[in-house]
Design a protein that fits this description.
- By secondary structure, the chain is of the alpha+beta class.
- It is built from 17 helices and 57 strands.
- A seven-stranded antiparallel sheet has the order 41-42-45-44-43-46-47, with no helix packed on it. Strands 3, 7, 8, 11, 12 and 13 form a six-stranded antiparallel sheet that branches.
- The longest helix is centred in the N-terminal third of the chain and has 25 residues.
Amino acid sequence: MIQLSFGCVLNIDLNMGFEEEKVKKRTLFFLSVCAVALNGYVVHADSLEAPSQLVTVPNLPGTGGQLTVVEEAGQMKAILSNITGEIVGVTGQFKSETNTGKTIAFTIDASGQYVAYLDRSSFSDEDRTFTLALTVNLIDGSAHNLDDYSFNWVKVAENTDDDSDLIENTSATEASKPVSSGTVVDSVEKDSSSSASETQSSSTASSSLVATVTDSSNATSASTLTSTQTTSSVGSQLRSASLMRIATNSSAQSSAVTKASQIDQTLELKYTGSINSGEVIKFAVWSDENGQDDIVWYNADQTGAAYVDLRKHRDYGKYNIHTYVNRNGKMVYLNEIVVDVKVSGTVTISNVDSQTGSFDVTISNITAPRGLTKVYVPTWTEAGGQDDIKWYEANRQSDGSYKLTVNKVNHKSEVGNYQIHVYYRGEDGSMTGIGATTVNLPELKASGTVTAINVNDQAGSYEVKISNVVAPKGIRKIFVPTWTEAGGQDDIVWHEAERQSDGSYLAKITKSEHKNGTGKYISHVYYQGLEGTLTAIGATSITLPELKTSGTITAINVNDQDGSYEVKISNVIAPKGLNKVYVPTWTEAGDQDDIVWHEAQLQSDGTYLAKITKSEHKNGTGIYVSHVYFRMLDGSMLAVGGTQVELPSARSYTIYIDPGHGGVDSGASYGGVYEKNLALSVANKLKANLIQLGYQVLMTRTDDYSVDFKTERSQMANQSNADLFISIHFNATGLPSSDATGIETYWYQYDPEYQPKINAAKHNDPTRLAESEILANQVQTSLISGTGAVNRGVRRDTFAVLRETAIPAILVELGFMDNPSDLQKINQDSYQTKLANALAQGIDNWYGAVGSKPTSGTSTQKKSTEQSQMTTSQQSFFNKILPAIQQVSQKNSIVTSVMLAQSILESGWGTSQLATNAYNIFGIKADSSWKGNTYTVQTKEVVNGKTITVEKQFRAYKSLLESISDYGSFFTSTAWRTKNYASFLQATNYETALTSFLASGYATDPAYAEKLKSLIQRYGLDQYDLN
């Protein structure tokens, strides 16, 4: 017996022979227990006042838990339990009144509690009050502070000489039964009857012993000492502490058991017996190899569970697990078990694909106590005798398994049985074989699915598709020899199929490559392997019927304004081959005197197009007839079909007449005769003549008032739908008298010195200029012929009305007012009638030269298409006002088109300052009868024949609807207005309404009614008239 100075009695019988090694282990283990008991006893001497407290996040009362500090196995342990809220992590600051302390990290135990051990070594022994300030991390990534928790921890040094207590040994034998990995075994308790024989006294001990002498918060590390070193070291610790209490042996035998189960690199221990308050279960764990050099002590939680990290032991095989309880500072032995720790894994084969020559290897249910850095899978074919072995490295999957794909190309493309072995490489570099399996990869034969697709009888073609391609020897090319059955292979062609993105192959067969044969077509398929051999795979056949020459003929892109359309020939079938496609076209009225053989052009989609323009057919209108002929490769011509199109005139048959000068601008004046009056007289006569011929007429002025010649006259024409513009003037040399005589006509000549202000886009337009020249010549010829006047010819100049007008325009000088003889003649009504007749004839001749003259229904047809001239922004404004104006005009007996035109003119399509700022789209002024809001703006008015700018107050509205409604009631808002506008409100069409409007004096601008009429006709606004 060796009596240790700290009170532990060690009995060693050195004469036990084969039992000696066992005694060594037991001796060291006994010393380890003493050291653990000592460690637990010293801390137990401290004083702790730490009541349980509910701590929560101040602004999240549903998030927190119950916090307390308890003494466990001689250590102070902070526990956050009864967790509420979505807490996924806890950290804390452990501090005292005098020390800011340090950060501690909490871990979650098997019971779902967050725990941390408190170390006060960095604090003063005088510190008594401590604080835990915890921070919780929530599942949404946010962090929040819990209520602070304070407790008292007093450091007490307790001295005692009581060493009579001994460690209790309740029961059990040394023998144990090995168990398999992952299974639960019962503990084997020590038998008290055998204890005496195992502790016989002895006077000497010379062998080396292994003991565990240190203890951490959750595990005790191991160290190797001789018996002398152990006695000295442990004794020194105990003496310095002077606090050790040794429990006496207990004769009570524990009936509780310890169970163990292996999960990967963790051994889960569970003591199933009851645990009294203040008791701590401890497990001593070590492997059989190398004695107890890897012994580690593990503290159980309050449920008796602890988790052994097998990586701290690094050994496989048998593990010894001894269970103790720290009961009131005494270490009491409970039981012991032995478990067998193994490395393992399940190896499975899946996705065996004979076509690709591959299969997947999966290693699951992995157990690797030494850690796992790589998983290797050496693989080879059985027939190759490992001459094709390849060490694959498996890849870790998200579920913890490992996976790899084996392809036969890495194994000399061999088939048959494959051997698959699996090895783990541990974190210590060791390699451990886990298991093996085999798989059969069957040999494949060349094959494929052959189908005929996209059979096109009309085009005389089809495609051969080869899918599900299997080619063990690889593919260099795929050939599709094809021939007609009737031809007896005299038309055979070896087509080469092209690989598609989906792995299939396609070969297109067209009968033009097979002498245009019809009937049954036969297609075989051959693979050419990488080594050059040909292998027959399969065949298919289809029938291409004999077809007749045909095509689908349609007229498209009919453009009435441009006078054009296109003839489209689609679904073309030409069994004899197609050289050209002709489209002979003529007007029905012309009786083929204007026939033209157009040649259609082949398009990318296989159709043919021929464009027909009436300018190639004498500008004829009406029915156009187009036939289609195919010219075959053999030169023959075959009629296919035809179509008809009606091309109405693109003209509006509207003429804008501009009586020169007016108002304060009298023009030339001789002998009391004013040019402005002569021009208006001839203009009125011309208007009557044109209306009689079926034309519509607009005028820049209808009375003696001023109209700006620089841009206003041209702008009025540009805003209309007129086809041409004619400005009427009389000449003068500027001298008091002259003998100059004759008539001359002008059309536009560009002059860089005079740039257009409102007609930059069209002033030099080739079509406008060409039609202006034709108009000038037709009118000049007619004037000279109709009056006998001297022909001063057709001339060119850059007059403003010619430059700023966007349509064909001319200016006529009808005689010299400073020539007394001419003045006498041109002042006669009869001569003015001759001038008007000649002008009308010249204009009518122009229509015949550039297109066609008006026919019945022309004006109506044109009106129905005019609204398409609105721009996008104009159409948007129009759509906003139309419903309300239709409703208000019908309710108040106002012609709808007049109301629409007035809103457009006054508001500039809703863009004027008055419209955008005051919603006033009719330009109604705020007179004394108006009680609402007003808006002041500058406006133009005609006073005494002169246009001036004045500042006026206008009515202001809150919306467009209010403006429209006020306009509807304006004309009957007073007794005077009701009487004054009676004729206007009784009108049933816009012409009558505008005449009454002008007569009532509604506007100061004498051209107001003419401007409204121009808008109505240009945009076909009369189609909305309800009366």
